[in-house]
Amino acid sequence: MKNHQLEQLLTELTSQQAATVEGGARFTLLSVDAVNPGPENDPRVQFAGITLFSRENMTAGQTAVVNRSRVFSSKSLLRLLDMDDPAGLAGDDLLGERQISTLPTPGSSVAWANVNGYTIRYRVTAT
Length: 127
Ligand SMILES: [Ca+2]
Ligand SMILES: [Ca+2]
Known about the structure:
Layout: H1 3-21, E1 25-34, E2 43-47, E3 50-54, E4 62-72, E5 76-82, E6 93-100, E7 110-113, E8 118-126
Antiparallel strand pairs: 1-4, 1-8, 2-3, 2-5, 5-6, 7-8
Residues 40, 42, 82-84 line the site of one calcium ion.
């Protein structure tokens, strides 16, 4: 690794850690329900550009428990895609997205039913 690449990496890590120290929120992807996915049955769920879940060939009625989380410090995008190209993101279809704010979720969870037949359950908590 060249020196400037290492420097860049260290800078990125430092700013990420700074965001954690300054506070913010934790997004937790709880579960993905394939209620009625139809032909778009290879879901990939991303938060802030990071894939937290992906599975091929989910069937109607199937639930995947995820419980993966990520700390963030400003509004970030939650996206549901359908994988059509397992090798990369180029062929994926965007099924839906929403902005997630750092405000903690009231109660224990929020359900999001999207038009393509998935229910994504997630929670935002203070760090
Ligand atoms: Ca597709
Ligand atoms: Ca597909």
